[in-house]
Amino acid sequence: MKLYDLWLEQRLPGRISVRFGQEGANDEMMTTAYGAVFLNSSFGFPGLPAADLPSGGPNYPMATPFARVRWRASDQWSVTGAVFNGDPAPPGPGDPQIRDRNGTAFRLDDHALAFGELRYTPDLDAPDNLQTDYKLGAWYHTGEFADRRFDTSGGLLADPAGTGMPKQHAGDFAIYGIIDEILWRREGTKDQGIGIFLQVQAGPSDRNLADLFVEGGVNWAGPFADRPKDIAGIAFAYLGISPAARSFSRDLVAFGRASSAYASNETVIEATYKAIVTDWLTLQPDAQFVLNPNAGIPGPFGPRPLPNALVIGLRATVKFQTP
After folding, report:
1. Distance CA 192, CA 229 (A)
2. pLDDT band at residue 323, thresholds of 50, 70 and 90?
3. How far is CA 116 from CA 149, 223, 290, in A?
4. In whole angstroms, how far apart are CA 147 and each of 12, 64, 110, 167, 213?
5. E strand intervals along the chain
6. What is the pLDDT of residues 6-21, one digit of tens each?
7. How far is CA 78 from CA 127, 136, 160, 310, in A?
8. Would you kindly state where each structural domain of the chain is located, as residue ranges?
9. Which of 33, 74, 159, 215 has CA atoms 20 to 30 A from the CA of 250?
């Protein structure tokens, strides 16, 4: 058993709400409504902060203490600011999820991770599965981040004769934009139609493994007249490996310390169909094709890049209801 969400929210005069406690950053920030139907984790928590932040950032199942303030300037416009503890796991080696096995570390003494997000929702009456949203945001982490290519003396990290100590950078950040847009609604219905989504997120190259993340896709709510609650979708997620990290990998090859350089990206293409079988049973067949798994970066699986992979699965969701 692991604790994830635990928070209290208070609504104040002047269209202001305050929430504090413990949650993941993607509970409210960096979210896309249409992307939520897909199973790959990149559509729930963007790949860029997952690759660059300590312990993968405050991302399921690794929540962390936070405080959030939201101001609704009007029915359509809102501004949200939030501050999270900068590392959801205690320090130490090994899997971060094991280091905070029960989700009760409640760490407050790490560096801070701050978010700011502006949101515009033109149609407040749109259903959740066919809404239009525009978001512009940024995050900033106050910690120190190691340079991906150069050491403290300005030499190459890959050089065996170098110091082996990476140059340090103060802070890390990224900016992002998100679009959820309805393209077409079936005549005579409110919650059947086609929508698209796009998210772009970018950060500095020198201190990050990844410096660009792009995801997008299309959903069809009610693709068949006799299946009005089903959703079909196809989407992609692209994680760009930073020039600094790729240069480091080429340096390793040049010094004879690696056999191949990193790939420029890892890309996932996913097709899914969410079928509402009954009020209590949902079945979701899913297929994902992964190009350049792990971007060719060596890991526990061995020194050579992994081949492209096809992943096929089925998610079953059962709802237990009381009379």
Report:
1. 8
2. low
3. 30, 36, 32
4. 43, 26, 20, 5, 20
5. 6-12, 16-23, 64-71, 77-85, 112-120, 133-151, 166-185, 193-202, 210-221, 231-241, 265-276, 281-291, 309-318
6. 999 999 999 999 999 9
7. 19, 11, 52, 40
8. 6-318
9. 215
pTM: predicted TM-score of the whole model, two decimal places? 0.94
Q: Which listed CATH number (2.30.29, 1.10.3470, 2.40.160, 2.40.50) goes with 6-318? A: 2.40.160
Copy the structure tokens of residue 24: 């993941």
Question: Around 60, how many Cα atoms within 13 Å sit in the side-chain half-sphere?
Answer: 11
Compute the distance between CA of residue 202 and CA of residue 27 in angstroms, rounded to an integer.
20
Would the CA dihedral through 253, 51, 113, 105 be positive or negative?
A: negative
Question: Alpha-carbon distance 7 to 319, whole Å?
Answer: 24
Cα separation, 122 vs 115, whole angstroms: 23
**How confident is the model over 24-66, as pLDDT tens digits?**
999 999 999 999 999 999 999 999 999 999 999 999 999 999 9
- For tokens 């525009």, name the residue: 134
